[in-house]
## 1
Amino acid sequence: MAKAKSWIEPHASGIYVKPADLWIDPSRPVERAAVTHGHADHARSGHGSVFATPETLAIMALRYGVDVEASHNQAYEYGDGFERGGVRFSFHPAGHVLGSAQILMEYAGERIVVTGDYKRRADPTCAPFEVVPCDIFVTEATFGLPVFRHPPTADEIAKLIGAVRAEPDRSVLVGAYALGKAQRVIAELRGAGWDAPIYIHGALEKMCQLYAVHGVDLGELRLVSETDKAEMAGQIVLAPPSALNDRWSRRLPDPVTAMASGWMRVRQRARQRMVELPLVISDHADWDELTTTISEVNPKESWITHGSEDGLLRWCELHQRKARALHLVGRDLEEEA
Amino acid sequence: MKRFAALIDRLIYTRSRNSKLALIVDYLRHTPDPDRGWAIAALTESLDFPAVKAGTVRTLLATRVDEELFRLSRHFVGDTAETAALLWPEQEKPLPFRGGVGGGVSKAGATPLDPTPTPPLKGRGLTVSEAVDALSSATRSDAPAIVASLLDRLDADGRYALLKLALGGMRVGVSARLAKQAFAQAFDVPVDDVEELWHAIPPPYAPLFAWGEGRAERPDLADVAFFRPFMLAHPLEEESVDLADYAAEWKWDGIRVQIVHGGGETRIYSRGGEEISGAFPELVAAFDQDAVIDGELLVRGEVQGGEAASFNALQQRLGRKVVSKKMLADYPAFVRVYDLLAVDGNDLRGLPWTERRRQLEAFAPRLAGSHFDLSQVIDAKNFDDLAERRAGARDAAIEGVMLKRRDAPYVAGRRAGLWYKWKRDPLTADCVMMYAQRGNGRRASFYSDYTFGCWSEAGELLPVGKAYSGFTDEELKWLDKFVRDNTLNRFGPVREVEKSLVLEVAFDSIHSSKRHKSGLAMRFPRISRIRRDKPAEEADRIAALQAMVT
C-alpha cells in the first residue's frame, strides 16, 4: 500500500493530489480543480478545468461564469468519477447543499475521502450523506466543540412560524446564506405546511431558480423589491445575512430579525448580530454528527480542517483515534454555517 | 421550568422595553404560584443561593466532561453557565443511525442522522419552585450532586435558565422597576401600590399575587421597612414661576435615595426601588429613627472643603456588594435630606410641602450630623434673583435648581405643575466624529451611536465621549448617510469614519477618567448641533475640555 503522504499534500490553499496534478477545493486559480460544492470558500473562479457534480458545476456557472458546456470541465453524478495519473476519483453525497459531494480517491490500494462540508440530518434540498469507508478521512470541523448540538430542525421551523403568527403586523426577516440555507429554510417551511408566498431579497432569486430547475420545489416566491410594504406584514422574508440590519430592511414592515445558522446556538453570538429570533439551523454537522461519522467511517486516520480542529482532535485523542489538524486558509465560515 | 426558560430566552433577544414588558406581563398572567414569584425574583436578581457558586458548576462539569473540551468550549462561548448548559451530556441519547454503509459506489444505505425528538417527559416534572427549594436546601458538600440531578432533568435551554437562576448574572435587562410595572399591568392594579408592597413581601410574593388577582385584601405593611414611590419633577419649561407658590432648593448631583426605618431595620432604596443598603452600611448604621426620608446621597470630597464631591466620586461607591474600609474612608457617603415622608408612625405624604418642611426641620436634629444634613431652601427674593444665583452656582455637586409647589402633597411619579427641575445650562464642546455604531430596535438599520474626539497637543484626535441622542429623525437620516458615505474601516458593527464632521456636543459636566486615553469622561453627552460649517481642525482641544473639569 502506498503511503498517503507520498501522493497527497495538504497546503494552506487546498489539497494537492500529486500523481494527478490536481487540487481539491483550491482557494487560488489552478490548472485542474475537483470541487466538493459551490460555496465560495471551496469553489473559486479562474481554474483551467473543473471536475464536480452537475449541480455544483451549474452553481459555479451561475456564480463565476464557469462554462458548463466546455469540454475541459467535467460533471459526474454521485457514484461516478474519473481516473487521472493512476488515481481514481469519485463523487459521493455529502448532504451539505445541492450537489455537494465528498471526493473519494483511490491510489495504489489506499483510499482517501475529502468530505468538503457535510451534515447528517435530513435536508429536502439535497441527497443525504453517504458513509464511504476509507483509510484517511479528511473531515470538516466547523462545529467541532461539544457545545454545538443542533436541535431538531422541525422545532426551529415551528419557532419561526410561531413568531410570524404571534405578530401579524410585522414581517419576520430571516437571514440565510444565499446558497443552500435559504432554499433549505424555504423547503422546510413548505414541508411544515407554510403555503403563503415567501418574500425574498433579489440576491437569492437566481439560486432559488437554479434549485427549482434541479427539481427542488420551493413554492411561490416573490421579490421584496416588487412588493408593497403592507403585503409583507405577517409574512416570512428571506435575505442574505448581510442585508439584515442594512438600509434594505427599511422596506419591510417593522421586521423581526431572525437568523438561521448553527452559530445561533450560542446566545452571545446571536446578540452580537442583533438577532431577535435565533434559529439553530445548520448545513454543517454538529458535534454528535461529526463524532458519529468518524466512528462510522472508522478510518485509520482523520485529518481535521475548517473550524474547531482542536475540539475534534481532542475527541479523537480521547477515543484513541489517530488524527491531525490541517490548517487551510481562506475559509470564511461565519456567513454560511 | 420550560416556560421560565422560554421567557429568559425571549428577554435576551428582545431589546425594546415595551416588548420586554409584554413578555413579562404574559408570563405573570399565565404561570401559577409560586413559580411566577420565584421567576420574577430571579429576573430582578433578588435570589441568592450561597452554597451554589460558579466553582460548584466547574467542579461538577469536570466529573462529566473532559477538562480540555470544557476549556476549549468555555473559551469559545465566553460564559460558564452557558457553556455548562450546552455541554451537559444528555441522558441516554441513542444515535439512530441504521442501515448499511455505502460501498463507495452504491447510493443505498444513506440514512439521515437526525436527533431523536426530545422525550416529552423531560423537564416537565421540574418546576421553578422545585428548583429553588432544592438549591436553597443545598450545602457546600451536596450542592454539586443537587445541581447535577436538576440538570439531568432539563434540556439545554432549561439548563441555562437553571444555572442563571442558581448563579445570578441573568443580564436580561429587567430592572425592579420594569418588573413592578409588569405586575401592575398584568393585574390592572396601580403601580404605586405595587412599588410600596413589593419590598415589604419576600419572594415568591404570594400575598402580592393574591391581592393582584383580587383573591385577597391589600397586604398590611405595618412594621415593615417598605419603599414609597418617589415624587419626581418635570423639566421647567415656563418662563418663570412665582416664588410665592414655589419653594426653591438646589438640585444635588448624587443619587436620589429613600431611607426607611421600620420593623427594627433600616433600608436604603434607589429611585427605581432597588435596595442598595448593602453598598452603604455606614448610612444604615447611622439611621435609627422611626422615619422615612427622601434625600440625595453624596460623597464628601476634600477638594470641596468637606462639601459634596462630584458625581464621579460617588460612582466609586455604586454597585458594590462588599465595601472595603478603604472605600469607606476614601469616599465617605452622606445624605442631604429633602423631605420627610413619615415619622413616628405617621404618614406625612398627604400634607402640603410647607408642613412637611416644618416637620423635617423639627426632625433634623434627631439625625446624626456626621451622615446627614438638611438641603437648604434658597432664599431668593424673586425669580430673577433665583436665576442669577443659579447662573452663579459653581459647586460641582449642584446640578441645578428644584422648584416645589408649596401646597402640594408628596405624590408618586411626575405630576404636572407640582415639581420642576431647572438644570444648569449644559456645557458644550465642538468635537469630531470618529466612529459610529448601529442602534437597536427601530434604529437597527441606522448608524445612531457616535464616538467623538477632540485634538491633543500632539495633533492627535482622542475620543472624549459617545452619544446617541439629541438629534431629530431628519438629522439622524443625514448622519446615517454621512457615516455610510465616509466609512474608512469596519470593525464588526462599528465603522470608523473620515474625521471631517464637527458635532457640537452638550454635556452636564466633565470629569477626569483613567478609563479613557483622553483622560476625560462626559456626563450625559448628547449631540446638540451638527456643525457642517466648521472645519474639523477647528474643533476643540483636549486642553479646553480639561479646563471644564469639576
## 2
Amino acid sequence: MAKKGYSIERKQAKWGLVFTIPCLIFFAVFSFYPIINALFTSLTNRRAISRTSDFVGFENYVYIFTKDNGGFPLSNSIRATLIFTVGTFIPMIIASLIIATFLMQLRKDKYRGFFQLMYYTPAVLSSVVAASIWMIMFDPRGLVNQLSNFVMRTSGVDYNWLVDSTMLQISTMMIYFWKYIGYFVILFITGLASIPNTIYEAATVDGSSRWHTFWKITLPLLKPTTAMVSIMAMLQCLKTFSTQYMLYQGGSSRFPIDVITMNIYFTGIRNGRLGRASAMSIVLFLIMLLFTYIQLRLTRSSEDVEY
Amino acid sequence: MNKFVGKVSIVEVLIWVLLIAVLLFTVTPIVFMIVASFMDAKQILAMPFSWIPSREYFTTADRTFFTNFQKAIMGNNDNPTFFRNLFNSLVVAITDSFTTIFLASLCGYGLAKFKFKGRNLIFLAIMSTMMIPFEAIMIPLYMVVSGMKMINTYRGLIIPFMVSAFGVFQMRQYLLTFPSEYIDAARVDGLSEPGIYARIVVPNSKPVIATLGILSFRNQWDNLLWPLLVAQSETMKTIPQYITKFSEEKMTDEGAMMACAFLASIPMFILFFTLSRYFLGGAAVYDSRKG
Amino acid sequence: MIRVRAKILISLFILILLSSCGEKDVSIKLEYWTHEDQVRQQLEERLISEFEQENPGIDVVRVEYESSELLDIIKNAFQAGSGPDLFNLPSEEISTLLGSGFLDEIDIEAIGYESEVDLFSEYISGAFDTVSTEEAVFGLPLECTNWCLYVNTRLLDEAGIDPYSLHTWEDIAEASEHLAVRDNGILKRRGFDFRYPYYLSFFIPMVRQLGGDIISPDGKVAVYNEEAWENALSFMMEWGPYGRNLGSPTYINARNLFNSEEIAMCLSGLYQESRMATQNNAFFTSDDWMVLPFPVFDEAVNEEAAGYYYHYFMVNANSPDDTRKAAWKLAAYFSEHAEEYLDEIGLIMPLQRIFESEALHNKPFAEVFLSDFSRSHQIYHGPNASELQDLIGEAVESVMLSSVQPEKAVQAMKSSIEELFSQ
C-alpha cells in the first residue's frame, strides 16, 4: 500500500512537470536568456554596432549612479518613474476599488454590464491611438484646455498641458489612468464577485449597515485581490513607456517624463550604449522586485492562499 | 418613474453621479475621435469645439463626408497596405490569445493543483519575468528571433508573446480556489490527467480564460515596439505601425489621423462588444452564486 | 461541440505558426530602407521597376521608416546580424556607423566610375566628407539640402507687413507678433515657427551668427563662446510659451502647415516646392508665396545661413558580394536620374552638372537657396552628432518649456557635451 501512495505522488509530480514545462521552456528562451544576456552585457562596455566589448566590472553601475548620462541621469529617471507610478497607481487602485464596489451596488445587471463595458473601452484602443487622441485634445486650442478654462472660470488661458513640466507629468498620468481604469475595475469586480453571497446575506441579517459591511467584510475579503491588482498596476506603471514616448515624439521635452524605460530606450537603442542601458535595465528589474516584495509583505495575511 | 423616487436613497444618487462622471471621462475621448474623423483640422481645433461636424464645410468641392477615411485607407500613395496591416494585427493578436490561453491554463493548472519538487521555484521564476521591462530585453530578444530566421514573418511577431507570466499567474490564482474534490473525483472515475485538464479544468475556467484571451489580444493589438523591429516589409507591418507612419508626415491632417485611428479601432470594438458577455465573466460568476 | 471547434481553431493557428514564409526564386534579393517621403516614394518605385527590368535577377524591396527611427532600427538590425542591403541616412547620423565595420566601401566599378578621383570630380567639393575616413569612402550622396524662409505673402499683406523688410530674427519675431492669431493667451495660429528638433540645422547657425560654436576654432573647447549661446537661448526663451508665446516644439510642424496656408512663414528646403505642388497646387501656382534668405540676428558677427546637410546611400558590408554590388549599382542608378529627383521632388543631388543645370536655376527662388548655400556650413557631422543634437535640443526646450535660465541651460549642456566627448 505504501508503495502505491508513493507512486501516486510520483505520478502527480510527473504530470505537474509535464503541464508546466512548455511554459518554462518558453520563458527560458524568451525571458531568462535575454535577461541573463542583459546582466552580462551590463558588465561590459558594449556598444551597438561595435563587434568587440571589454569586461568593465561594475563601471556602468557606478557611472549611472554618479554621472549624468549625457544630460539625462538615472536619478532623474527614477524620480520621473516614481512620481508617475505613485501618481497613477494609487489613484487608480482607489478609484477602481470604489467604482467596482459602486457597480456591484447597482440593482440591474444590465446597467452594471453597460458601465463596465464603457469603462473598459479605452483599453481596447492601442496606445498609439490613445496618444494621438489626447495629443490633439491637449493642444492649447483643444478640448482639454477649453474645459480647463471653463472649470477654472478663466478665458483664453493656455494651461500648457504639453509644455509645463508639471502639467506634462499630469498629462501622462491622465492618459494612463484613462486607458487602464476599466481594466482594473474589471479585476476588482472579478474579486468582488468571488466573495460568496452568503456572507453578505449573513451580514444583512446581523443588521450591519452597508458602510460597515464594506469596511468589515468586503475589504478584508478583498485583500488577496487588492494585493494582486495593486502589484499588477504598480508593475505596469513602473514599466510605462509608450505614453511618454509618444508625447516626446510630439515635441514635449523629455526631461520631466524621462522614465527609466525611456532612458533605457534612448541610451541603448538610440545612443547605442548597450552596456550602460543594460545596467539600467538591471536596476529597474531590482526596483520592481523590491517593490513587489514590499507589497507582498504589506498585504500578506496569515489565512491567505500560499504565495 | 415616480413610484421609484421614494426608494432612491441619497447614496444611490451619489453612486449614479459618480458612475456617470467616470463614464463621461472614459467615453468622451472616444466620441471625440469618432466625431473628429469627419472634420478637418480647423474644426477639430475650433474654439469652442462643436460636437457636430458643420454642414457648410462639406459643400466645398474637394471634400465629402468621407474624405478623411479615404485618405486614411489610401495612405500617402495608391498602394494601400491598410487592410493587409489590419489583417496582420488580427492574425498576431488572435493567435497569441489562443496560445496564451492554452499555455497559461496548462501551466497554471500544473502549478496550482500538483505537488512536485521545484514547484515554488518555477512559479517564482515565472513571476519574476513580469518584472522584466520589455525595453530591457529587446535587443537580446531580437537576436534570438533573428537567429531563428523569423524576421519579417508571422512567427517572429507571434512567438515571443505566446504566453505571459501574468496569464500563468491569473490562471494559478483562479485554480487555487477551484475545489480539488472535483479533480479527485474525476481521477477516481478513471479520467486521464490531460482528460481532467480538458474536460474539468478548462470548462470550469471560462470566465478567467475569456479575460485572459481578451487581455492578451489587446496587448498584442497594442504592441508597437516589437513589430517596429521585427516587421520590416510593408506587408508584414501591423496597425500601430500603420498609424504612426500615418501621423508622421501628415500631422497637419488631424482629421485623417483620427479617421485612421477610428478605422483601426473598429475591429477591436466589434470583437470587444461581441465578446463582452464572456468578458464580463467576473460578474457572471457573481450572478451564478447569487442564484 | 465548442471544444471540438476550439481544437480545430488551435490546430489551425499552430499550422499558421509553423508554416514558413516561402521564398521566391530570385538570384539577388535587395532590401532598400529609406525614410518616409511620399513624393520620393513614387519616383523611386518607378526607377526601381525600371532598374529591375534592366537587371533581371535583381529583386528590390523598398521599405520606408519614420525618419526619426530609421537609424535606431538599422543599428538594431545590424547588431542582430540582419538589416538592409542598401539604406540612406542624413549627415548627423553617419558618424556612429563610420568605422563600425558595418559599412561597405564604395564600389567604384559597380557605380560606373574609373577611380575615386573620377567620382569626386563629378560632385561638388566636400560632397563626400561626411562618409569618408582616411582609408576609404562609404557612401554616395542622395541629396544636399539647405533651408530658407518660405513666406506666405498674402498673409503678410493682410497684416500690412512688407516681406522685403524681413532680414533679422528680430524682424521675424516682430512680424510673428502681428501675424499671430490669438484668443488671449491661446495661440491659435502662428506667424513663423522653427523647425524642431533639427537644432543642428537651424539653431547652431543662429549661435554662430552671434559668434559661438559647438567646438572652438582650436578644437579644444566644447560650447565655444558661452555668451553667444546664452543670447541665442534667450531669443528662444522669448519665443516660447513663457516669453512672447510665438511658437513651441509641441505644435505641428510649421512646414506642413505652410502648404495649407495655416502659418505665414516656415523654414524648409527647395523640396518644399514639390510638396506644395502636390498638396496645394492652387497655392503653389499663385503669387502668394516667396522664399527669403535665412534671417540673421541684428547683432550678428557672422553672416551665417542655415546649415546644409546631405543624405547618403550606404551599403551593408555584411551582405553577400553580389548583393552589395547590386546595391551600389542601384544607388548609382538613382544618381543617374538626378535630373528627375530635381524635377519631380525638388531634391538636389550634389552633382556638378545639377548645380550648373538650367533646370535648377529655373526652379522658383532657386537663386535664394544657392546664394544662402554660399554663406552656410555643413551641419556638424563629427562623432556623437545625433547625441549632440539631443543635448542642444534639451537645452533649447528647457529654456522654452521649463523656464530654465539660459545661463544654467548652457552650463548643463556644456558639462554634458564635455562628458560625451571625454568617453
